[in-house]
Amino acid sequence: MELESLLKQYFGYTSFRPGQHEVIQTLLDGRDCLAIMPTGAGKSICFQLPALMMPGVTLVISPLISLMKDQVDSLVNQEIPATYINSQCTFEEAKARFAAIRAGRVKLVYISPERLENEFFTSFMQSLPISMFIIDEAHCVSQWGHDFRPSYCAIKDWIAALPERPVVGAFTATATEKVKEDMMNLLGLEKERIFIGGFDRPNLYFRVVRMNRKLDFALSYVQQHREDSGIIYAATRKEVDRVYEELTRRGIRAGRYHAGLNDDMRRTMQDAFTYDRLQVIVATNAFGMGIDKSNVRYVIHYQMPKNIESYYQEAGRAGRDGAPGECILLFSRQDIMIQKFLIEQSVHDPQQQAVEFRLLNAMVRYCEGNHCLRHYILTYFGEHPSWQHCEKCGNCDQETVEEDMTEQVRSICLCVDELKGRFGMTMVCDILKGSQNAKVRRYGFEHNSAFGMLGDFTLSEVRDMVRQCIDDGYLDQSDGKYPVVSLTADGRQALSGHQRIVQQKVVSAEPVPELPKRQQKRRAGAIDEDALRPLFDTLRAVRLELAKDEHIPPFVIFSDATLWDMAALKPDSLEAMSDIKGVGSFKLHKYGRQFVSAIQSYIDNH
C-alpha cells in the first residue's frame, strides 16, 4: 500500500501502469533488472519511486544534458530531491550540488556516462552510500544498436570498483534480441530479472504516405494543426533548412535543429520548442534522446529513417502523455538511396555495414507493404500479436477490395524464376513492365518469357504487386546492400497454376493531411476534443503563465492528458481535482486552486 500512496503523493496516479509494479518491487528487493519498456510506459517512475524509498543516493546515467535537465526540473517541481552534474554547471553550482549530495539532501543524481571518467567524481562517489545505479537508454552500450555510445562500455568496471555494489537497473525503450544480449553482458548485471513490456503504443496512429510532393503535404498538415506541437524529421541538414524556411515564410512558429548549427543555436531552438514558444521543430536525428516533451501531438518523418529502431523511438516522441498522437512517414523511393549513401559515408567496417543494410531493408519493407503497420512493428521487436489487423493504422484504414491476382502473381513468379535469384526488385519490375533500358538489354532480358507481361500497369503498380508477393510469402528478399529476390516453395506452387490467388487491393486515393474522420476524437477515450477544445485552451493558457513565472516547461506542471481530463470532468474543488490523473498532492496544493478557479470562471462565462 505504501507504494501506491507514494505514487499518488508524488506523481498523481492511483494505480501503476502494466509492468511498473513488478520492476519497482524487483529493485526494492535488491535485485538487478533489465527493463525494456516502450516510450510512454512510465519507465522513469520505475526507478524514481524506489530511489525515494531506499537509503543513500541513486545515480542515474542519462545520455544527454538537455534530457537530464528536463527530468530534474520535473522531479524538483514534484518536491523530489534531485540534481544533475554536467559540463554546463558553473564551478559554484557544482560545488553547491556536491555539498548537498554529501549532506544527504539529494536522492537522485543525474550524470552523463562520460562523467564516470572524471577522477574527482569517481573518488567522491566511492565515499558515499550508493543504493542504486540506473542506466537509462541502456541500448547505447551495444554496437548493434542505433545509438552506440562507447562511454557506456565503461559502466561495468566503474560499478565493480565501488566499495559496495549497488542494485543495478538498466532501462531502454526498444531493443532487438542482439542488443538485449549486449545490455546483459556489457553492463555488468548480476542475476538480473528481465522485463519486456509490450511495445504497442495504442494512443499512436501510424501512417505511411507514399508520395513525392512531400513539402506540400507537410506545410498543409502543420497549418491544419496550428494548435498542436509537432516534430518533423528529415534525413539531411539541407532538407531541414528547406522545410524550416518554407514553414517560417508562411508564418508558422517553426524552429530547426541539426549538427550544422552551433551549440548555442541548438540549445536556443530546443528550449523554445520545450517551452512551447515554437509550434513545430524541423530536425535531423541529432534532435535525439533529449526530447522529454510530453505534449508532442504529431511526428512527421519527411524521409524514411535508416532502421525500425530509430523510427519507433523518434515516432514515439508523440503522445508521451498518453493522449493521442499521429506518426506519419512520407516515403519515396529516393529515400532508400539517401540512406544507403549515408550508411556508406558513416560506416566503414564491412560487417557493421552489412548489419546497417539489413536493418535498412526491414525499414523499406515497413514502408512499401500493405500490411498492418502496428503488427509489423510489434513482430519486428519479437512480439506475436494474436491479430493481423489493428484497424488503427493508415494501412488498416485504407479502403480495399478483393481481386483475383492469379495471373499477375504467376507472371511475377515466372520472372523471378527466370532470373534464378540473381537480381533485385528493380530489375524484376523493369522486365515485367517491359522496360527497354540499358541494363535490361545488356543482359538480354527482353527475350525472357516474362518480359512485358505486366506492361499494362504503371511501374509503381508493378512494384506494389511484387512487394505484396514478398509479404504473402511467394517471394523472398535477401538482406544486404543489394537485396535479391528469389522464389519460395509457395511461389513455385503458385507458378504451377493449381491455385486461385485472391489479394486485398487498395482502392487508390490521393493522400490528404487530415486524420480519418473517426480519428478526430481522442483515441485514448471517449472525449470529444472539438467540444472540449475551448476549455482545454483556457487551461493551457493558465499552465503557460505559471510555467513562465517559474521558468520551467509547461508540460512539467501538467501534461496535456491531465488538462484534457480536467476539461472533461470539470473539478469544482481541490478534493475533486485530486481525482484527476497526474495531479499529485504537491501539485494539487501548488497549482490546484488556479485551475479550479479557471474552470469555474469558464463555466460561469459560458
Automatic annotation (TrEMBL):
<dbReference type="InterPro" id="IPR036388">
    <property type="entry name" value="WH-like_DNA-bd_sf"/>
</dbReference>
<comment type="similarity">
    <text>Belongs to the helicase family. RecQ subfamily.</text>
</comment>
<protein>
    <recommendedName>
        <fullName>DNA helicase RecQ</fullName>
        <ecNumber>5.6.2.4</ecNumber>
    </recommendedName>
</protein>
<keyword id="KW-0378">Hydrolase</keyword>
<dbReference type="InterPro" id="IPR036390">
    <property type="entry name" value="WH_DNA-bd_sf"/>
</dbReference>
<dbReference type="InterPro" id="IPR032284">
    <property type="entry name" value="RecQ_Zn-bd"/>
</dbReference>
<dbReference type="Pfam" id="PF09382">
    <property type="entry name" value="RQC"/>
</dbReference>
<dbReference type="InterPro" id="IPR006293">
    <property type="entry name" value="DNA_helicase_ATP-dep_RecQ_bac"/>
</dbReference>
<dbReference type="Pfam" id="PF00570">
    <property type="entry name" value="HRDC"/>
</dbReference>
<feature type="domain" description="HRDC">
    <location>
        <begin position="529"/>
        <end position="606"/>
    </location>
</feature>
<dbReference type="InterPro" id="IPR002464">
    <property type="entry name" value="DNA/RNA_helicase_DEAH_CS"/>
</dbReference>
<keyword id="KW-0347">Helicase</keyword>
<dbReference type="GO" id="GO:0016787">
    <property type="term" value="F:hydrolase activity"/>
</dbReference>
<dbReference type="Pfam" id="PF00271">
    <property type="entry name" value="Helicase_C"/>
</dbReference>
<keyword id="KW-0227">DNA damage</keyword>
<keyword id="KW-0067">ATP-binding</keyword>
<dbReference type="InterPro" id="IPR010997">
    <property type="entry name" value="HRDC-like_sf"/>
</dbReference>
<keyword id="KW-0234">DNA repair</keyword>
<keyword id="KW-0862">Zinc</keyword>
<dbReference type="InterPro" id="IPR002121">
    <property type="entry name" value="HRDC_dom"/>
</dbReference>
<dbReference type="InterPro" id="IPR001650">
    <property type="entry name" value="Helicase_C-like"/>
</dbReference>
<keyword id="KW-0238">DNA-binding</keyword>
<dbReference type="InterPro" id="IPR044876">
    <property type="entry name" value="HRDC_dom_sf"/>
</dbReference>
<dbReference type="InterPro" id="IPR004589">
    <property type="entry name" value="DNA_helicase_ATP-dep_RecQ"/>
</dbReference>
<dbReference type="InterPro" id="IPR014001">
    <property type="entry name" value="Helicase_ATP-bd"/>
</dbReference>
<dbReference type="InterPro" id="IPR027417">
    <property type="entry name" value="P-loop_NTPase"/>
</dbReference>
<feature type="domain" description="Helicase C-terminal">
    <location>
        <begin position="214"/>
        <end position="363"/>
    </location>
</feature>
<keyword id="KW-0233">DNA recombination</keyword>
<dbReference type="InterPro" id="IPR018982">
    <property type="entry name" value="RQC_domain"/>
</dbReference>
<keyword id="KW-0479">Metal-binding</keyword>
<dbReference type="Pfam" id="PF16124">
    <property type="entry name" value="RecQ_Zn_bind"/>
</dbReference>
<dbReference type="InterPro" id="IPR011545">
    <property type="entry name" value="DEAD/DEAH_box_helicase_dom"/>
</dbReference>
<feature type="domain" description="Helicase ATP-binding">
    <location>
        <begin position="24"/>
        <end position="193"/>
    </location>
</feature>
<keyword id="KW-0547">Nucleotide-binding</keyword>
<dbReference type="Pfam" id="PF00270">
    <property type="entry name" value="DEAD"/>
</dbReference>
<keyword id="KW-0413">Isomerase</keyword>
<dbReference type="GO" id="GO:0003678">
    <property type="term" value="F:DNA helicase activity"/>
</dbReference>
